[in-house]
Amino acid sequence: MRITFYGGVGEIGGNKVLLECGGSRLFLDFGRNFRQEDSFFQYPFDPPLDVGDLIRTGILPDIPGLYSGGGAVDAVVVSHAHSDHYGHIPLLAEGTRVLMGETAWLIVRARLEAMARQTWADRVDHLDVETFRTGDELTVGAFRIVPIHVDHSVPGAYGLLVECEEGRRLVYTGDLRRHGEAARLTEDFVRAASDWDAHVGLVEGTRVAPEADPEAAAARLFEQMLALRLGDRIPKRVAKEAKREGDVLQELVAVADDHPENLLMVEAAWADIDRARTIWRASLETGRRLIVDEREAYLLHRMREDPGLRGLPEAGDLMVMVWRRRRSSGPASRRLAEALEEIEDAGGEVLDAESAAREVWSNPGGFIFLTGHPTRALKDLMASGRECRGRLTYVMSRSEPFTEEMVIGLDRLLNWLALYGVRSYYRIHVSGHAAPEELREIVEQIDPGAVIPMHTEHPDLFRLYVPREVRESLIMPSLGEPISLG
Ligand SMILES: [Zn+2]
């Protein structure tokens, strides 16, 4: 078996791993890396115009037939529905076989359906998509693939066990954690992976870093820089300790109780369903009404189709704010409009931004606002002209920007918060990724013959976090350079 990394090396996300064996070729994930794209392009004014732009800048591998014509690979397996793992599948050639979990496919489609405008880089209808669940076994040419669910900050995430017909076996962790609501899923994966007797493990190391909390360290640095530039009016970050999802709930309730007169706005990553559920619970515990933006409403509505996801608000529980728009009024897309009608029919409330703002500012302490796009929400809520200064409490409940959904300029957000008179804001979050000590245990239990660190900015630091006997067998990947496994 030959393994070639075309992404996810020395970076968080952008995973693209080509496996070759017995004449068969298979990609594990085909994700985007937004930092790379941002270093050459700017959305929406100066985006890449075609695949060629992305190949010439080294962002996409130059593999004949992969993007048109076909025949370059037998399949692409997507581990989960975060853009840094699936985001480039729209660029694959017509008819490319793509395998992903059922829930992941639901989320991928929901994201596209809720978009106002789809570009050439946002289509998936041309792909030959097959979905799987845990317990399925997939055959792709000379490969046998066993997907096993893991817990991550998006539902429907999988780790993959891969065997090549010549007998070499590989374990791919995808992204995973052991401290989430559904930790038992990760345990199932670790057990199966340990029985797999893998020759090599491709292990994510998002949180392997010189600082205990690299995100917080980076954020602090960034805020110091902003404070220098913008002065004292920049709101200060108050980080609340949270180790498990349940802690997030407790802290949210505490913050809500500390600011009973204020609107509580909580920013969360769009597809972080566990967090949406937590925020819904916080609204129930505090007696505040949950209000969400149209895009969040669409996701929650579609996720109800998944019988595996429970504890989410019913359509009738939702109050939805439709964004203000310059030209057309109403929701972004036809699919979204239909979903909002269904929500209304079920007893939910769908309001234009003006009416939503009127409701909110008439009794701000009565609401929790869940959004993945806070600057837009803050802009719309202020446009009503009602008094909003000093009436907002803000909670950032997401990681630092790794994926498009999360990339929102922190400086812009802080400027908006300052306009609202916010002096300090809260950060309450638990990561979707295993902490280094969890990682050590996972590697110990899976016990692969060799470990290849990926999805980390510090592959070199893996030696500090893997058991002694594994340290000898660390393989540092290089972009585009094949690693041969026997
Ligand atoms: Zn990832």
Strands, helices and their partners?
Layout lengths: L1 E4 L10 E6 L2 E7 L3 H5 L12 H6 L18 E4 L4 H4 L10 E5 H12 L14 E5 L5 E3 L2 E8 L6 E8 L4 E4 L10 H13 L4 E5 L9 H17 L5 E4 L5 H14 L4 E5 L5 H14 L2 E5 H10 L15 E4 L11 H12 L3 E4 H10 L4 E5 L2 H9 L9 E5 L13 H10 L4 E4 L8 H11 L3 E5 L7 H4 L2 H4 L11 E2 L2
Parallel strand pairs: 3-4, 4-5, 5-6, 10-11, 11-20, 12-19, 13-17, 13-18, 14-15, 14-17, 15-16, 18-19
Antiparallel strand pairs: 1-2, 1-21, 2-3, 7-8, 8-9, 9-10
Helix pairs in contact: 4-9, 7-8, 9-10, 12-13
The structure holds zinc ion.
Question: What does this protein look like?
Answer:
- By secondary structure, this protein is an alpha/beta fold.
- The protein has 2 domains: 2-207 and 433-484, Ribonuclease Z/Hydroxyacylglutathione hydrolase-like (Metallo-beta-lactamase, Chain A), CATH 3.60.15.10; 214-427, Rossmann fold (3-Layer(aba) Sandwich), CATH 3.40.50.
- 32% of the residues lie in helices and 21% in strands.
- It is built from 16 helices and 21 strands.
- The protein has helices spanning 34-38, 51-56, 83-86, 102-113, 183-195, 214-230, 245-258, 273-286, 294-303, 334-345, 353-362, 374-382, 410-419, 436-446, 462-465, 468-471; strands at residues 2-5, 16-21, 24-30, 75-78, 97-101, 128-132, 138-140, 143-150, 157-164, 169-172, 200-204, 236-239, 263-267, 289-293, 319-322, 349-352, 367-371, 392-396, 424-427, 450-454, 483-484.
- The strands form 3 sheets. It has an 8-stranded parallel β-sheet, sandwiched between helices. Strands 6-5-4-3-2-1-21 form a 7-stranded mixed β-sheet.
- Helix 10 links the parallel strand 15 (319-322) and strand 16 (349-352).
- The longest helix is centred in the middle third of the chain and has 17 residues, at 214-230.
- Mean pLDDT is 91; it is low at 402-407.
- It binds zinc ion (ZN).
- Zinc ion (ZN) is lined by residues 13, 82, 84-85, 175, 455.
